[in-house]
Amino acid sequence: MKAVQNTQARSLETSPAALRLASSRIEGRIARATIFVPAIGTAVAAAAAITGVARPSWLELIMTAGLCLVTQLGVTIGYHRLFTHRSFEAARAIRLALGITGSMAAQGPLLFWVSEHREHHQKSDSAGDPHSPYLDDETTLTGLRGFWHAHVGWMLHHASTAWQTYARDIFAERLSLRISRQYFLWVAAGILLPGLLAGVRYGSWKHAALGVLWGGLVRIFLVHQATWSVNSIGHMIGQRPFATPDQSRNNRFVAFITQGEGWHNNHHAFPSSARHGLERWQWDLSYAVIRLLARIGLVRNLKLPSPDQIARGKRRQSFEVGS
């Protein structure tokens, strides 16, 4: 009884600062695992393939490519355009599918991904932006140091409280909150299912391990690098057709590897747009999938800037450059 009372007393004495510190440590461990485990798995898979110790079969490579596409679209269409920016409405089954496939990309629970990205838009390339290549809190960044911080470094020391301000709608909605709470289940499924399929197909533990490595860890690593390039390259290299108050840029290469997310200056000019590739020649597979879903009645109320809004934005940029 006395031990229980002592435990309760210690619990009551726990300060908010101590709770934040504990949360920060847990978040830091998750971030390090998110960054380094797929990278190590990719190095092991590549070394095994190059040396001939264990080369992947066509099945493992097809699963890797297929899951890269599916989980990346889960991030670009689901996490980003649907849940973060509400650029369209979707049936419950589509919301669930996009939330799960986005979670399988292992970029953090939906609740925290949404909150971090909304904070990025609110404070883009200014104090408080979680992943600007130009600022780390009050420290000015340049060159490779800025690239590293925006691409991956920010996750190693960033303690997030943004969800309390920027993701209350996600927290309040039962479906999105459930997706967030079951995040580790979805990540594990995305890693283990390719191993299960390869193991059953070939009746081999070796191929089960290769399925986990390639369809799981290598796939996560590749999708990570593509997504994180929007934060780094997408604010450093490319064109700025719109006069946004930040350094967001359009980059064709990043747009290609992210299924349309690399038209980042377009996105910052019109954050709620379901379409990022505003020109016909601008690759945006994510929007093509959204349009297909709309045609068959699974999504609706797509938000798009009008041609006049786009033209006015470009005229404003031309005026500022000319002045």
Strand order of the largest sheet: 1-4
* Outline type: globular
Distance between the termini: 76 Å
Q: Strand portion, in percent?
A: under 5%
Low-confidence stretches: 1-22
Number of H- or I-type helical stretches: 15
Radius of gyration: 21 Å
The tally of beta strands, per DSSP, is 4
- What percentage of residues falls in helices of 4 or more residues? 55-70%
Q: Structural class of the secondary elements?
A: mainly alpha
Q: Major beta sheet, specifics?
A: 2 strands, antiparallel
> H/E series, N to C?
HHHEHHEEHHHHHHHHHEH
The overall average pLDDT, rounded, is 90
What features would you describe in this structure?
With 323 residues, this protein is mainly α. It has a domain at 31-237. Helix content is 66%, strand content 2%. It has helices at 2-13, 16-51, 58-84, 92-104, 110-122, 143-151, 163-166, 168-172, 174-181, 183-202, 205-232, 252-257, 264-269, 285-295, 307-322, and strands at 89-90, 135-136, 139-140, 299-300. The strands form two sheets. It has a two-stranded antiparallel ribbon. Strands 2-3 form a two-stranded antiparallel sheet. Strand 2 and strand 3 form a beta hairpin. Helix 2 (16-51) crosses helix 11 (205-232). It is globular, with a radius of gyration of 21 Å. The protein starts with a helix and ends with a helix. Residues 1-22 have low confidence and may be disordered.
